Amino acid sequence: MKQQLGTMLTAAVLLYAPLAWSQTSDTSSSQTSSSNSSPGLFTNSGPTGWTDSPQNGSSDSGQSDSGQSGSGDQSQSGASGPQDTFSHPEQLPALNLFSDVVSRTGISLTTSVGTLAQHVTGEGPNTWEALSSFNGGLTMAQIRPMLTWSLGYIGGVNLTSGISNYNYTNLNQAAYANIKWNFAKRWQMRIKDNYFYSDDPFQPFFTYLGQPTPNNPNPVVYYPQAVIEQNQATADLTYQLGPHDVLNFEGVEGFQRYLRSTVSSLWNSVTYSGSAFYQHEFSQRLAAGGGYQFAALDFGHGSSRAGVQTFQGFITYVFSSRLQVSGWIGPQQTSTKDIVPVFCYQFGCFYAIQHQQTWSVAQGGTVRWKATTRDLFGLDFSHGVSNGGGILGAATIYQATLTYSRPVSRLWSFGMGLYYVDSNSISSFRNPEFLKSITGTLGFSRKLFDSDAWSLNAYYAFIHQSENYTGLPDVISTSGLGFTIRYSWDHGFGR
Q: How far apart are CA 126 and CA 2, in angstroms?
């Protein structure tokens, strides 16, 4: 468990640092993002230097048929035997056929090296550990007037060294794909897929995937002690009814698997969800709407199942160029089915099937406040029933995130973040199991060599966690000091 929380700290901080300390002039978000919801505190997605905004460049180039008209028939009628292709260039497509595709395509290469000295308490004697991380990533993207896509991969090796002369290495990797297609005047489709794998059995950490929204009110995942494989695919369809009205439909499928786990009580899980929402923009300051969301959760291949229906209303108001507030609320119905062992003996077990149905109120909100031209605050919070991972099953989750960022100078910037989560299982034979944690990070980042390609992050981070589930201590804490150096090379083809 010492290594477990150590690697948790490293993974969370290294993934958070480039986001929390990036600066932006956007008054509605503390993170740099091209979507409506800003990136969250911790994320597994690989870094990319490409956005979804259209590029200024060459437009679609038309090809004339005059240079090729009739050439195909003439060459075939008068040719005998093998022909040298390069002696007949008029039979080939013009090279500028590919100029438009090339000019709109780019590649981004990233690499980072980091180290962390941490102190772990809560299980046995206190101990110090050194954690080193080496990562590299590749991203390709193409931006066209009607279609945008990007593909990315990031992989790395972590090395953990303890003062008791133990050392071990592990591999983690992630890949993602993102497609946005405006296939009609008022229609837009977005498809996203994120894959994550780690062969480190001591890597549990919280992942805050994004701010709470009506479509995703509980964006939190917990990775317990296991080798982990996870994938989430999302299809989003948006229809613009008019200048101020929008319909949105979304479907999500995901799985989470624990391979070669040392904890017998872990559950593999599969999640399906769908939603439909309507939004109306009353003015440039006020927008509101509502909708419906359904989620089907399956744990342990039918050992525990839950269906969660939520009816939501939401509102967004821009008080000024420096303050924006949004919130959502609605009734939530949760139906669970659990196969519970009554008693077991040498020949097997007797099971009972238990059904439960409850009603509750789910809510959440966001605040973005630019106190001055330099000081930017962000607050996200939510409460509702969602996926508690393989250790809790369906759970009631309370969570809140607070972020602050400020540029200190042209090269230096400061950032901090606090994340709190309180998860309580509602599955019949896991109740009253729970997991509570508070995580904090603060530090400085600096551009190296007066270039955007090179950056240095120096930070302090801590985790304080209490839990009540099989095989882990009640309370454990860790804190450490570390730094990361990152290099990103971005290049557009055809330039």
A: 9
Tell me the torsion sign for CA atoms 468, 469, 475, 479.
negative
The reported pTM is 0.71
User: Could you say which architecture CATH assigns to the domain 2-47+92-492?
Assistant: Beta Barrel (2.40)
Q: How many CA atoms lie within 13 A of 141 on its CB side?
A: 23
**Closest to 334 (Cα-Cα) out of 294, 377, 374:** 294
Question: Is residue 348 within a helix (H) or strand (E), and if so which, with residue range?
Answer: strand 348-370
DSSP 242-264: ETTEEEEEEEEEEEEEEES-S-T
> Among 211-225, 410-424, 460-474, which is the least confidently predicted range?
211-225
Residue type (1 letter), 298: D
Place of tokens 């002369």: 165
- The pLDDT tens digits of the residues spanning 157-195 come to 878 777 767 777 778 889 999 999 999 999 999 999 999
Contact 456, 368 (CB under 8 A): no
The whole-angstrom separation of Cα 123 and Cα 477 is: 9
What element of type H or E holds 70?
Answer: none
Structure tokens at 86: 């390069």
Contacts of 151 (CB under 8 A, 6+ apart): 139, 140, 141, 175, 176, 177, 178
Give me 199's structure tokens.
Answer: 């062969």
Strands 348-370 and 434-447: unpaired
Q: What is the DSSP string of 283-349?
A: SSSEEEEEEEEEEEEEETTTTEEEEEEEEEEEEEEEEETTEEEEEEEEEEEEEEEEEEEEEEETTEE
Closest CA to 195 of 237, 229, 163: 229
| Residues 483/460, Cβ–Cβ less than 8 Å | no
Those residues with Cβ within 8 angstroms of residue 105's Cβ, 6 or more apart along the chain or in another chain: 140, 141, 142, 492, 493, 494
Contact 290, 277 (CB under 8 A): yes
Distance, CA of 114 to CA of 158 (rounded, Å):
9
Tens digit of pLDDT for each residue in 116-150? 887 777 666 677 878 888 889 999 999 888 999 99
124: left (phi over 0), alpha (psi -120 to 50) or beta: left
Tokens standing for residue 359: 């009603």
